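Bit of a strange request maybe. I'm writing a small parser for C-alpha cell strings and I need a real example to test against, not something I typed by hand. Could someone generate the C-alpha cells for this chain?
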Amino acid sequence: MPASNRSKRVLLYSHDSYGLGHVSRCRTIANAIVEADSSISVLIISGSPVIGSYEFRSGIDFVRIPGMVKQITGEYDAANLRVGVEHTLEIRTRIIRDTADIYRPDLFIVDKEPLGLRGEVVPALQLLKKCGTPLVFGLRDVIDDPAQLAVEWQRKNVVPALRDLYDEIWAYGLPQVNKPLAGLDLPPSVRHKTVYTGYLRRGLPLHVDLPHEIEELQDPFILVTPGGGGDGEDLVDWVLSAYETDPHIPYGAVIAFGPFMAATAREAFKERAAKFANIRTLTFTNNLGALMHRAAGVVAMGGYNTFCEILSFDKRAIIVPRTRPRLEQFIRARAARNLGLIEMLDAERGRDPHVMATALRQLPQQGLPSDVIVPGLLDGLGNVWRLVSKQLAHPHRGPAPIERPLFDVAGGSEAPAVVPDGAAARAKL
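Reply from user aminoacidic:
Good idea to test on real output. This should exercise your parser:
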C-alpha cells in the first residue's frame, strides 16, 4: 500500500527479561504517540509476562515473545518453556524479525538493549535498515557505571550498531542529572545523534480500579514500592522492621510487593504487616500511579519508572537504591539527592531499623520535587512526540537491495561483520 494511503506505523521493542520498568516506559511512549495522533498505530514487541495487565489506548497492540529470566550468575534462561535457552532465543529472534517484516513500520524504536537480548533484534534491524526505516535507540537516564558499561558494550560489540545501524539515540533524561554515555569511548557520530528528551511524565490511568481495602483508606499513608519486587525483599524488610521498632510512626503504609517477589517472602511479610492496623499490602496493581497520587510520600528502590512517577506526582520520597548487579539506581538516586529532588538511604551502610524509622518520621517534612527548578525536567513525552513526528513526516520507503549485511550475528553470537560507513549505506537507500 502506498505510504500516502495508509496510516503511519511505529514498532517498539523491549526485551523485558526482568522487572516492570522497560514495559512501563514503552507503554508510556506508545500511549503518548497515539494520544498526539490517533491515526498512528503502535505495536510493541515485549517479553514481559505482565504486559497484558496494562491498559493501552486505542491504536496500540503488543506481541508477546517467550519470556527470559536472568539468573544470579548473569546468564539467561527460558522463563517458562522447557526447550532450552538457545531454542527460546531462536523463537524470539524469528518472531521479532517476522513481525517487523509483516508490520513494516515507519519507525522502529529499540529500548535499552541496542542489539536486543543476546543480539535477537539485529536481524530485524538489518531488515528494516534495508527498507529505509528510521531506527532509534532509546535509553534511560542511567544505564550503569561507565566502567562496567564499557566492558559490557565491548563484549556485546554494541558501538558498531550505534554507529552504523541507528539513525538517532534518544536519552530519556537530562544531562543535568546524568549523561548515560559519558565516559565511554564513542565516535563523534554517535554523540552527535544523541538527543536528551527530559524525563517521561506519567499521568493517572484512564480507569482507576484499586483493591477495595485500599480504596477505603482514609488516613494518609506512605507507599512502599520495590517495583517488580524480584529484588525488593531487603527494602520491605527494612520498612517493616522500622514499624516494629517504632510502632508510633505517624503515617501508616501501603506495601506493594510487585509481581516478581518470591511467594514465600511475600507471605512472611504479609504476616508481619497484619499485626499493624495501619499497614496494608498488595501483590500487584497496574494502577500504581493512582496509589502514589494518594500517598503522603514514597519509599522506593528508585528505578527509572518509579523515579518518573515520583517527579510526575510531585511526591516526597526516600530512595533506597540497589547496587547490584548494576549501579544504575544508586547513580540516579545520588544525582537526584544532590539536586534536592529526593532523599536517599544507602543500604550498604547497614539496615538499622531506627534509621529507617527516623526517615519515615521526617518524610512529611521533606521538600517537594517541584521546589527545585530544573528546566525541561518532565518534558520528555512532548519532545519524544516531536522527534517521532519528524521521522514520520517522511514517506515510508519500501525494500531496497543492499550488497551485504550491515551487521552480522552469526550463530547467535555478537561478533562484528565488516560494516560500511553509515552515511554511505543510507545514501544507497
